[in-house]
């Protein structure tokens, strides 16, 4: 399984011969100016919530690739109404896809489309397949995270660490404890001033708790 970081909260997961693209916000991110969205592969696009910094490029990429958009009912239906392939989910539900089983889980955040319309309730995803991955989405630290390892032993947790809008690095360390995962990929940091972090301090905080924090440069890939 290969995970590529495209900046902010956008990652690509290559698994079982399929490519999953999560929360594509690329053209609006100056740090990702070297990424051409029309060159990206995607069989599925996973959206955790409706904020612009997570959905900006979803429609363009879906139209270019034919990818199926997977999200909560409101977001998925929004894109379905535009004629795009979609699969709606809601909290606690799971579905067996051709890349593995995906479960939509709780996140503590808000969710609205750029025009202010309702974007359903935010969430994260648990992927069970070639490897088991928790994609937290934008979230505060929540005790609900403790439920995840009761069903799924994780190989990797993808956690926001930028603070202000989500958990900070210290709450993310606790989140890694809650989900019982020592391997963490950090995201949702450094895109703009509110969420800039000290990389070395973040890595030290995780190391002090016996965990490994990986921070990828944009375009870099992690093998899981």
How would you describe this protein?
The chain is α/β, with parallel strands linked by helices. It has helices at 52-55, 58-65, 73-80, 148-151, 169-178, 199-208, and strands at residues 2-5, 11-15, 18-22, 44-46, 68-72, 86-89, 94-97, 100-106, 123-128, 133-135, 156-160, 183-187, 212-214, 221-223. It has a seven-stranded mixed sheet, with helices on one face. Strands 7-8-9-10-11-12-13 form a seven-stranded mixed sheet. The longest helix has 10 residues, at 169-178. The protein is globular. 47% of the residues are buried.
Class by SSE composition: alpha/beta
Whole-Å distance between the termini?
5 Å
Q: What is the ordering of alpha helices and beta strands? A: EEEEHHEHEEEEEHEHEHEE
Q: Strand count, sense and closure of the main sheet?
A: 7 strands, mixed
Task: Calculate the mean pLDDT score and round it.
Answer: 98
Instruction: Give the helix level as a range of percent.
Output: 10-25%
How large a portion of the residues is in β-strands, by DSSP E? 25-35%
Spatial order of the strands in the main sheet?
6-5-4-3-2-1-14
Structure annotation, total helices: 6
Radius of gyration, whole Å: 16 Å
Unreliable segments (pLDDT under 50, ≥5 consecutive)? none
Which descriptor suits the 3D outline? globular
What is the number of beta strands? Answer: 14
């Amino acid at each position: 399984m290969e995970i590529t970081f495209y900046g902010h909260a956008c990652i690509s997961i290559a698994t079982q011969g399929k490519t999953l693209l999560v929360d594509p916000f690329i053209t609006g991110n100056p740090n990702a100016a070297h990424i051409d969205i029309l060159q990206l592969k995607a069989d599925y696009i996973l959206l955790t919530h409706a904020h612009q910094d997570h959905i900006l490029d979803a429609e363009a990429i879906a139209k270019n690739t034919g990818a199926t958009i997977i999200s909560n009912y409101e977001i998925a239906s929004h894109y379905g109404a535009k004629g795009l392939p979609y699969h709606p989910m809601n909290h606690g539900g799971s579905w067996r896809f051709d890349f593995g089983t995906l479960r939509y889980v709780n996140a503590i955040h808000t969710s609205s489309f750029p025009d202010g319309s309702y974007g359903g309730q935010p969430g994260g995803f648990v992927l069970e397949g070639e490897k088991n991955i928790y994609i937290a989405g934008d979230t505060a630290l929540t005790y609900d995270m403790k439920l995840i390892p009761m069903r799924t032993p994780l190989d990797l947790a993808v956690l926001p660490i930028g603070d202000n809008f989500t958990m900070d690095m210290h709450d993310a360390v606790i989140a890694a404890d809650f989900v019982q995962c020592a391997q963490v990929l950090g995201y949702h940091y450094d895109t703009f001033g509110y969420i800039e972090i000290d990389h070395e301090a973040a890595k030290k905080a995780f190391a002090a708790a016996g965990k490994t924090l990986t921070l990828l440069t944009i375009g870099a890939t992690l093998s899981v």
